[in-house]
Amino acid sequence: MTVTVILGTQWGDEGKGKVVDYYAKNADYVVRFQGGNNAGHTIKVGEEVYKLHITPSGVIQGKTGVIGNGVVVDLEVLLKEIDMLRKREKEPKLLISDRANVIMPYHKLLDGAEEKYLKDKKIGTTKRGIGPCYSDKVARRGIRIIDLLNEEILRKKLEIILPIKQKLLEIYNIKGNLDINEITKTYVEYGEKIKPFVTNVSVELNDAIKKGKNILLEGAQGTMLDVDMGTYPYTTSSHTIAGGAGIGSGIGPKQINEIIGVVKAYTTRVGEGPLPTELKDEIGEHLQKKGGEIGTTTGRARRCGWLDLVVVKHACIVSGITKLAVTKLDVLDGLKTLKVCTAYKCDDKTYTTFPAQTEMLDNCNPVFAELDGWDNIDKDAKTFEDLPENAKKYLQFIEKETGVKITLVSIGAERDKTITI
């Protein structure tokens, strides 16, 4: 039996979808433990491309996909994904936690309302209702999946919540009439559609562990978007690190055997917030174009920069990462010189650990190590030895700096463009 966590070590978009799909072949359950449809995983199988935002990636391989209690669920999006998979003859095996919170219409209306007042300090929300839903969860005003299965309970909760939200809409000058009858009817209907999938996920997963089943816990976003350990306040609203995996699925931390950190061979992020190694030149354009750096969920172009090992080392520390998977190594093909950030220089001080106060990064410069690049990776490469010599040195440099072994390297979007070490 193994319980494995796969998570991002940067600002998300590291290629976790492909890595999860690769490891899912040995899993019985694939679990989403946090986030919502503000994350996106792209999986390519032959000529088929699947873009999933809330459904666990493992369902593509016929595994049991689990939406844990730590996830906030947009049921309209989930039902569309289920329908899409069925149309493509991929009947999803799905379990949904009865404790997961539901994204409601007022969450979407309110999301981003404060952004216009923050001006240049805006967070860069995806405006899908994720943050407001998590806010209500913490404030104990949330609607949970289990509530949708009882119309009387749902209505009583909405009778308390809706007048508060209606007042907020008026304060923010947002048009919208929160009709309790319409909302109750819609979400009770959603409840009926998902009822066959709803269960106590914690009990299900712990029983599976006792039976020796293999469980894969997949994170959304990345370490630097963690609400505590990331570039706060430019983060998501949940815990993207390994500690969030147990909380968001109902599995005890001692049950986890392996923690795999996914590292993109360079650095990207979507939206606002610091990106110390950002490139606004032709190299940045090379990474963006060759890497296809367009957000799966947002459709926004990703900001690109050199690999930042201060960030990756931070991720390794806060999640106790045991293995690394490096993705998009082939995007660096053709660059004569590569730079890797190993520290930040702020005034007269050098920092090798990521600071809590992100504002100080405005006055910091990355300290770079320079490595020789390579021409092109052979697309038929199957082993570490098949890689160009300088590509091997690049990977070895990452291992040395982080102190964590690389066990997987991706050199293309397809499943077979994967090297295990």
The largest β sheet comes out as: 10 strands, mixed
CATH-defined topology of the largest domain: Adenylosuccinate Synthetase, Chain A, domain 3
Shape: globular
Strand neighbour order, sheet with most strands: 9-7-5-2-10-1-11-15-19-20
What's the gyration radius in Å?
Answer: 22 Å
What would CATH call the architecture of the largest domain? Alpha-Beta Complex
Poorly predicted runs are none
Mean pLDDT: 93
User: What would you give as the CATH superfamily of the largest domain?
Assistant: Adenylosuccinate Synthetase, subunit A, domain 3
- Please, how many domains? 2
Residue fraction in strands: 15-25%
**Which structural class matches the secondary elements?**
alpha/beta
Tally of individual helices: 12
- Given this structure, which CATH class of the largest domain is correct? Alpha Beta
User: What is the straight-line distance between the termini?
Assistant: 22 Å
What would you say about this model in short?
It is built from twelve helices and 20 strands. It has helices at residues 16-23, 75-87, 105-110, 115-118, 130-138, 151-171, 180-194, 201-210, 242-247, 282-290, 309-319, 389-402, and strands spanning 3-8, 29-32, 41-45, 48-52, 64-67, 72-73, 93-97, 101-102, 198-199, 215-218, 258-264, 267-269, 303-305, 307-308, 323-327, 337-346, 349-351, 364-372, 406-410, 418-420.
